[in-house]
C-alpha cells in the first residue's frame, strides 16, 4: 500500500469489528460495506491525528484488501450470531473452569497463548467435525487423532469458508446462502444454511455440544428479551433518534491492573479503552511530531504495550486484548459522555 496511513491487518480487523454492529449486514453487500469502511477508517485516523483532513483511505485502496475484508466480515457476522445465540454467555462460564485448570499461570500468559475466553478460546470439537476438517485440509489440526481435538471457533469459521469458496458452494444468485456438498451434508445434517445460521450448525459440534433445539430456544429467548427491552425503552420515552449509548453495542470488560491504572477505570468496553488510550497519548504528547503514526511509550503506556518503548497507531491494537481480562455484565458499566 502506497498510502502511509493505510492500516495494517490488525488495525483493519479492529475497525471492521467496530463498524459491523452499526450496519444491517443482511441487506448490505460487500461493495457497500467496503465504502462504509473507507469512511470509518478515514474518520478514525483523522480523529487520532488531531482532525488532519489530509488523511484519507479510499474505497479503491480497500478494494485491494477485498478478500481480507470478506474473511473478517464473515468471522464478525458469525461472532454476532454466536452472541445472539447466547454463546458468549456459555464462554464466560467456561472461563471459570479454565482459570481453575491453569491455576498459577498468569492470565496475561494464558491469553497470549490463545487460552483466553471468548470465541478465540480453544474448545473440544466433535469427532465428526474433526474428521471433516482433517480431510478438507483447511485447518491445521493439533494432533493425529480425531478424538479430543480442540480448536478456536474463529479457526473453524475461517476453515469452513475456505472450503466453501474452494468448492464454490455459495448460491450464485444469493452469495449469503451456502448449498452444502456431500461431505458437508454428512457433517452438518442439512442441505443448506446461510452465513447467519451457519453458527448454530457449528455450535452443535463444539463443546458443550448443545442440540439444535437448545440453540433455537436460546435464540428465541434472546429475541424476546430484546423485544421486551425495546418496549421498556419506548415506554420510558426513548425515541429512535435518541439511542441508548451505554456501551455502543460492545460488551464491557474488567481491565488488568496496568490498563486500569492508565485509564483510571476498572471496567470499560473495547471502544472506550481505545479512546481512553488515545486521550492519554494526546494529553501526554506521546506522538512523534515528525511521524504522527509513531507513539513513544512512557512508563505507564509501556506497561500496557508489553514493555515496548514505542509502537505505531496500528501495532498498538494487538496489545490491548490481553488487558481485557474478563467480560462482565453490562450493568457494571455506566457510559459517561
Short key terms for the protein model shown above:
single chain; 337 residues; mainly alpha; MDM2; 3 domains; three-stranded antiparallel β-sheet; globular; SWIB_MDM2_domain; SWIB_domain; DM2 domain-containing protein; SWIB_MDM2_dom_sf
Helix-strand topology string? HHHHHHEHEHEEHEHHEHEHEEHEE
What is the 3D form?
Answer: globular
Backbone structural class: mainly alpha
Poorly predicted spans: 87-117, 239-247
Q: CATH-wise, what's the superfamily of the largest domain? A: SWIB/MDM2 domain
CATH class of the largest domain: Mainly Alpha
How many domains is the backbone divided into?
A: 3
Main pleated-sheet profile: 3 strands, antiparallel
Averaged pLDDT = 78
Cα radius of gyration in angstroms: 21 Å
Describe the structure in your own words.
This protein is mainly α and 337 residues long. The chain has three domains: 9-64, no CATH class; 84-94 and 106-214, SWIB/MDM2 domain (MDM2, Orthogonal Bundle); 252-332, Orthogonal Bundle (MDM2), CATH 1.10.245.10. The chain has 14 helices and eleven strands. It has helices at 9-19, 30-47, 59-63, 66-84, 87-101, 107-112, 127-136, 153-166, 182-188, 198-203, 212-235, 257-263, 270-283, 299-304; strands at 122-124, 150-152, 170-171, 174-179, 192-194, 252-255, 267-269, 287-288, 291-296, 310-312, 324-327. The strands form four sheets. It has a three-stranded antiparallel beta sheet, with no helix packed on it. Strands 7-6-11 form a three-stranded antiparallel beta sheet. It has a three-stranded antiparallel beta sheet with strand order 8-9-10, with no helix packed on it. α1 (9-19) packs across α2 (30-47) and α1 (9-19) crosses α4 (66-84).
Amino acid at each position: 500500500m502506497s498510502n502511509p496511513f493505510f492500516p495494517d491487518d490488525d488495525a483493519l480487523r479492529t475497525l471492521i469489528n467496530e463498524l459491523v454492529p452499526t450496519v444491517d449486514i443482511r441487506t448490505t453487500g460487500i461493495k457497500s460495506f467496503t465504502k462504509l469502511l473507507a469512511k470509518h477508517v478515514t474518520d478514525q485516523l483523522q480523529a487520532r491525528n488531531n482532525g488532519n483532513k489530509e488523511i484519507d483511505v479510499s474505497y479503491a485502496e480497500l478494494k485491494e484488501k477485498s478478500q481480507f475484508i470478506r474473511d473478517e466480515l464473515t468471522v464478525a457476522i458469525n461472532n454476532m450470531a454466536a452472541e445472539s445465540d447466547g454463546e458468549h454467555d456459555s464462554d464466560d462460564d467456561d472461563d471459570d473452569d479454565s482459570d481453575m485448570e491453569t491455576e498459577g499461570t498468569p492470565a496475561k500468559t494464558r491469553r497470549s497463548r490463545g487460552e483466553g475466553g471468548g470465541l478465540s478460546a480453544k474448545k473440544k470439537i466433535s469427532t465428526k467435525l474433526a474428521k471433516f476438517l482433517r480431510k478438507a485440509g483447511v485447518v491445521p489440526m493439533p494432533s493425529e487423532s480425531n478424538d479430543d481435538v480442540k480448536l478456536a471457533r474463529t479457526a473453524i469459521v475461517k476453515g469452513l469458508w475456505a472450503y466453501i469458496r474452494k468448492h464454490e458452494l455459495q448460491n450464485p444468485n444469493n452469495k449469503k446462502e451456502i448449498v452444502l456438498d456431500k461431505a458437508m451434508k454428512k457433517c452438518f445434517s442439512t442441505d443448506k444454511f446461510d452465513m447467519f445460521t451457519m453458527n448454530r450448525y457449528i455450535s452443535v459440534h463444539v463443546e458443550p455440544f448443545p442440540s439444535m433445539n437448545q440453540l433455537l430456544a436460546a435464540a428465541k429467548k434472546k429475541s424476546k428479551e430484546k423485544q421486551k427491552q425495546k418496549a421498556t425503552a419506548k415506554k420510558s420515552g426513548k425515541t429512535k433518534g435518541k439511542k441508548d449509548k451505554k456501551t455502543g453495542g460492545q460488551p464491557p470488560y474488567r481491565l488488568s491492573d496496568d490498563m486500569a491504572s492508565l485509564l483510571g477505570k476498572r471496567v470499560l468496553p473495547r471502544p472506550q479503552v481505545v479512546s481512553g488510550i488515545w486521550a492519554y497519548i494526546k494529553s501526554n504528547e506521546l506522538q512523534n511530531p515528525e511521524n504522527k503514526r509513531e507513539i513513544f511509550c512512557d512508563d505507564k503506556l509501556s506497561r500496557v504495550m508489553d514493555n515496548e518503548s514505542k509502537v505505531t497507531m496500528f501495532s498498538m491494537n494487538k496489545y490491548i486484548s490481553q488487558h481485557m481480562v474478563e467480560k462482565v455484565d453490562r450493568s457494571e458499566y455506566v457510559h459517561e459522555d
